[in-house]
Fold these 2 entries.
Entry 1:
Amino acid sequence: MMRIIMDFKTLLLDERDDGIAILTLNRPEKLNAINMQMIDDFNAAMDHLYHSFDTRVVILTGANRTDGSPVFSAGLDLKEAAILDQKSPPEGSPDYLRFPDYSKRFFHFQKELSNTVRKIRAIPQPVIAAIRGPAVGWGFAIASASDIRVAGRSAKFINAFIKIGAGGADCGSSYYLPRLIGLSRATEIIMTGRDVTAEEMERYGYLARLVDDGAVMDAAMVIAHSLLEKSPLGLKLTKEALAINADAPGLEPALALEDRNQNIASQAKDSKEGAYAFFEKRPPKYGKR
């Protein structure tokens, strides 16, 4: 497989030969804030990755500001979102902006925005969020929706939705954050919208690694390469089980899903390769698929 670099208008997707893809939020002049174009690009990138079978792990990060300082994402681009109020949208705007009343326009906009969270959970690859600088609003939400989080000491997490006259629960924040750090802590962060430091989030168990800013991508790569050592099918089934069993009503349905997944995984050649490699005390050779 040749290395593939897809340059969206607001994202950069680098699918490397080793099975790791790096997806970079790339609006540095706007602090990587999400606008309508980024919504479209992000959802398109997720659709592409869903069928990108040679890509086994995704690292999600943000481009540095134009002055070189770090930022993950400043959340929603409020200036551009103001066009939802305009009855005559600019040329090239999404078709839903042509609905005659605001409530319908915003309904479809909100669905497209929340689809970014749905799709990051739907892709089979584990997603590692590599966070430096602020992760605000949608940026905080998409980090929470990732499977693993690595952050630099400059990272800070801000649930900004509550600060702009809207509800504090948006883009899955009220779903993922309580599951990651507990309801009491999540409630305080979501309702106050205060800045939360990387050190505090590490104490809460939100982060898998907290490192110096210059080591964030290296730390994410170490985790990514450790995942590449696992069975491709086994890793996909593990992500599925973790996602579904977070809401399992009890032990029995959780065990049933795990049993089903183990039955599927054990039929793949990777299962035998893993067993042979274990007993022969060598790294398994799974291949990319």
Note: The chain has two domains: 4-228, 232-279.
Entry 2:
Amino acid sequence: MDRRTLLVTGSASLLAGCAGRWEVSYAQGLDPTVTRGWNASQVIATIPDFLTVSNDNTYAPNADIVWHGDPFGDRKEQVAAILKEAVTAASAPLKGPRSVAISAQLLHFHGVTPAATNRAPGAVHNIGFRAQVFDARTREPLTGAATIEADLEANVGAMAITAAVESQTERKRIVEHLTIVMQGWLGIGPDPRRTFVSIGR
């Protein structure tokens, strides 16, 4: 066994030691009889300045934001765009008379790296954010700030290759997942809350 094989095997073993329980969760979904009276005229996605970013192509970089699903660039800007796109899509069915603004503040966005995608036995997109709804005109809070965990099993190995062939990019898959999670919280979609066990950070 050469040194490269030892390094890969050792890294995989280390990652396997990080197997744990992951979740899609929020304390309570909103009342659909209320939310169907809203229309989302504004979606605000914010990334706190203090969140750290890593572009390291290792199995599990130690940072709040890890994202390789877009070309190299401003990772905070990229994940903010993902979050905004998902919340906008989730709230699109709301056609009520009251205009609201939905705020989504990122807590962490730990996507998988190419190294993990190619060689890890499993991986997780670990995503969390805080969501709140305000009256669009008065800025009166209409909900409390809800912490939403939206973890998702990542495609690795052969599954990642199949997804790429079918044009199911990481970004597209995450946007679709976050849309479903937000619709559940808004009370206009099935309850997506669940737990699962997988290898990850």
Note: Strands lie at 19-25, 38-46, 53-54, 65-66, 98-110, 124-135, 146-150, 152-153, 194-199.
